[in-house]
Amino acid sequence: MQVLVVGYGSIGKRHVKNLLNLDNIEKITVCSKIKPIQKEVNDNGKVDFVESFDYLINYQSLHLPVDFAIIANETYKHVDTAILLAERGIHLFIEKPISHNLERVEILKEVADLKKLKIFVAYNLRFLGAIQKIKYELDRGAIGQPYFAQIEVGQYLPNWRPNTDYRKSYSADSMRGGGVSLDLSHEVDYMCYLFGMPKSWKTFKTKVSTLEINSDDLFEGIYQFDNGFICNIHMDYLQEIKKRTLRVVGSEGTISLDMVGKHMEIADGNKRQCLNDESLFDTERTYIDELCHFIDAIKNDNSPLISLDNGITTLKLLEDKCV
Questions:
Q1: Residue 6 DSSP SS3
Q2: What is the rounded (10 degree) CA torsion for 155, 156, 158, 161?
Q3: pLDDT digits (tens, 9 = 90+) for 179-207
Q4: Residue 105: other Cβ atoms inside 10 A
Q5: Distance separating alpha carbons of residues 253 and 144, to the nearest angstrom
Q6: Distance from the CA of 231 to the CA of which of 55, 147, 172, 192 falls in 20 to 30 A?
Q7: Burial of 220 (C-beta count, 10 Å sphere; 0-12/13-18/19+)
């Protein structure tokens, strides 16, 4: 297979590295204004760099067969890039979130439907063993009827990317798709994966800190489901000690997950099961698994686990929008 990767920041580099480890990838074309001074990985001649996206889509793509494209540029560019590639009949693997707002997402959906394209939105935490384990336990009724859930994620923005100025990152700029609600929207996606679609919700976004950013650094979402179950999601750029947790309380037990501490506990009546298996918390593996999943979806004409509709829904759940 031949793959186009648009964007070569940290996530673009990660995808290129993982693609090179897959046997069925023959060629990777990277479109980025930032070309590495020297090769960061041994690509065996499989990787080519193109600086101009306009040149690529207007000329080179006509002569460059591409089986799918990975869109890993800045968030605010995702949809426009996706539309241009979709119009050329290219399947799309879009980094989360699909955009910084809902403008033009319906155009992308119309083009994708017309061209019968596969579109996958890369919320990799769905592929984390711990999240899949919780999904299994909930589906089998391990803790009875869920009553409420609390999801919390926080990390101090200046510590996110070592050796970079956080004030110059896209996270600091709302116009470029920054803000904690978009950066950490994984939590909203896996909420839907675990519990389904809420019937009503209320969200709050604000900037409360002295961080030199013009994007939100604090998000609170309250989501109510048909059976009265409520899930609260908290996200922030503020906690110097990184935190990523989930707690679900049900009629017959509780499930607690600490992704940073790599610990999960399932309390069912008088039984308490503690799970610390490293494979449950192998985040690096999720990036490979999502790529393999999308490639299989293309080859076998299956629907991807996380569709464009799922990505649009997540954006709406970050706002006070009806779905």
A1: strand
A2: -10
A3: 999 999 999 999 999 999 999 999 999 99
A4: 21
A5: 7
A6: 172
A7: middle
Burial class (CB in 10 A: 0-12, 13-18, 19+), 264: buried
Contact 154, 243 (CB under 8 A): yes
Distances (CA, A) of 131 to 77, 252, 291: 29, 20, 18
Q: Check: CB of residue 253 under 8 Å from CB of residue 267.
A: yes
Render pLDDT for 127-173 as a digit per residue (tens, 0 to 9).
999 999 999 999 999 999 999 999 999 999 999 888 889 999 889 99
Runs of H (alpha helix) within the chain: 10-20, 53-58, 78-86, 105-115, 129-139, 180-183, 186-195, 283-300, 308-317
Those residues with Cβ within 8 angstroms of residue 227's Cβ, 6 or more apart along the chain or in another chain: 145
CA gap 97, 84 in Å, rounded: 18
Strand duo 271-275 + 91-95: pairing: unpaired
SS3 250: strand
For helices 283-300 and 10-20, angle between their N-to-C axes, nearest 10 degrees: 60
- SS3 state at 56: helix
CA–CA separation, 115 vs 214, rounded Å? Answer: 38
The number of angstroms, rounded, from the C-alpha of 33 to the middle of its chain's C-alpha atoms is 23
Residue among 59, 58, 60 at smallest CA distance from 48: 60
Cβ neighbors of 39 (< 8 A, separation 6 or more) are: none
First CA to last CA across the chain, in angstroms?
Answer: 36
| Cα–Cα distance measured from residue 304 to residue 26, given in angstroms and rounded to the nearest whole number | 22
Count of other CB atoms within 10 angstroms of residue 34 = 12
